[in-house]
Amino acid sequence: MRVLVLGAGQLARMMALEAIPLNIEVQAFDVRSDQIVDPINQQVLGEGLQQALRDADVVTAEFEHIPQAVLEPCEQSGKFLPGSRAILSGGDRRVEKALLQQAGVANAAYAEVHNKAELEAAVQQLGLPLVLKSALEGYDGKGQWRLKQMEQLDAVWTEIAQFLKQASKKAKQGIVAEQFIPFDYEVSLVGARSNNGDTVFYPLTENHHVNGVLSVSLARPEHPLQAQAERMFQAIADELDYVGVLAIEFFVVGEQLLVNELAPRVHNSGHWTQQGADTSQFANHIRAVCGLPLGATSVLRPTLMVNILGLDQLPDALLTIPGLHLHWYGKTARPGRKMGHINLSADTTEQLAKRFEQLIALLPEEDFPELELLLPKI
Ligand code: ATP
Ligand code: MG
Ligand code: MG
Q: What is the architecture, at CATH level 2, of domain 109-179?
């Protein structure tokens, strides 16, 4: 069996690595270069989407910002899972918001904004502060603006108008204005749905961001909001007739979850499952799209994940910490770029806290800010 993944980054690579023992081959299609590549070593295997689709039994994706010209033939191939509606729901915040409405799950109130008058109307309707997000292409907090006070409105709109003017003419860029949610913290739910509607869920993961980029994820088994998150997942996944791994980011406000956004794919906040769960999110995605039974998601031991941003080297001494696993993506370093991650596991949460302390002491502080703030949370 051969799976084609749209996108040739680290998520395709980690799916490919997990597919090998299942006797499944993964090829990746690099949407930018139009090349078919081996996602493990980046070797070029061929060219062109048509060939890639012809040679694949199943087509899936590792990212949601996929041009319509690629999505259409994938959909027409009849092999595409979770399908173009699911991908668009992750890639276009207007489609996403409409879907959340339709599925009846709680999320931040919003309005679409195309001009200054509509931004003023959004302030009237939703109040301040507002979080303004580009409808397309946003990731790692890019393409976002905050409007805190009325006096900033002109300046913020000038920036947004500039941004919209530079947007590609091929895709219809726009802006979604969201009510600012004064959340307690953020969690995500990663789950998988099979083609017969079976679902499995990992425990909620608590996520900490630095400068809009995920820094640390902590698995939170037995979280009191697990059942609420699973109900919301089910409503969204059923609405999309979803097949594969789906990740949902939430804001926690007291006893209530509000959906922030969807990722119709394996997700950075699920990387801990490689060492912390019976079946990883990557193996479960491959299983789901290939029509195989889903794997158990039971947590094996307390685990957390730390992202490595902008660095392609860390002290070898890290590997002396028991329960530590390094995952490099084999990419060329650029400031802020996701280069790899560290999974850290232990037998107990107390032991995990001790090992995390050891890890923090070995990491260069300027590249891993704010980690010690998380120590008391473990
Ligand atoms: P990702 O890399 O997760 O795809 P993104 O660029 O799509 O990120 P969001 O997840 O929508 O962006 O927003 C980034 C972060 O900004 C959120 O994790 C949250 O901390 C904050 N944020 C977003 N929307 C709101 C909101 N309505 N109220 C308060 N904070 C928000
Ligand atoms: Mg996003
Ligand atoms: Mg997000």
A: 2-Layer Sandwich (3.30)
Neighbouring CB atoms inside 10 A of 313's CB total 9
Residue identifier of the C-alpha nearest atom 5 of ligand 1: 139
User: Does the beta carbon of 64 sit less than 6 angstroms from any atom of ligand 1?
Assistant: no
Going from the Cα of 132 to the center of ligand 1, the distance in angstroms, rounded, reads 10
> What pLDDT score was predicted for residue 168?
74
Task: Identify the CA nearest to 37 among candidates 9, 70, 66, 8.
Answer: 8
Fold assignment, 2-80 = Rossmann fold (3.40.50)
Any idea which architecture 185-377 has in CATH?
2-Layer Sandwich (3.30)
User: pLDDT value at position 195?
Assistant: 97
Q: What is the mean pLDDT of residues 274-282?
A: 98
| Closest atom, ligand 1, to C-alpha of 140 | 2
129 lines ligand 1 (CB under 6 A): no
pLDDT at position 81 is: 98
Q: What is the ipTM of this complex?
A: 0.98
Ligand 1 and 9: CB distance under 6 A: no
pTM over 0.80: yes
Is 171 a residue whose pLDDT tops 90? no
Ligand closest to CA 268: 1
Distance 44 CA to ligand 1 centre (A): 35
Closest ligand 1 atom to 179 CA: 27
Residue 74: C-alpha distances to residues 11, 55, 70, 248, 264 (Å): 19, 12, 7, 24, 15
- Give the per-residue pLDDT at 8: 98
Region label for 161, one of left (φ > 0), alpha (ψ between -120 and 50) or beta (otherwise): alpha
Domain extents in the chain? 2-80, 109-179, 185-377
Contacts of 256 (CB under 8 A, 6+ apart): 106, 228
Confirm or reject: Cβ of 178 under 6 Å from ligand 1: yes
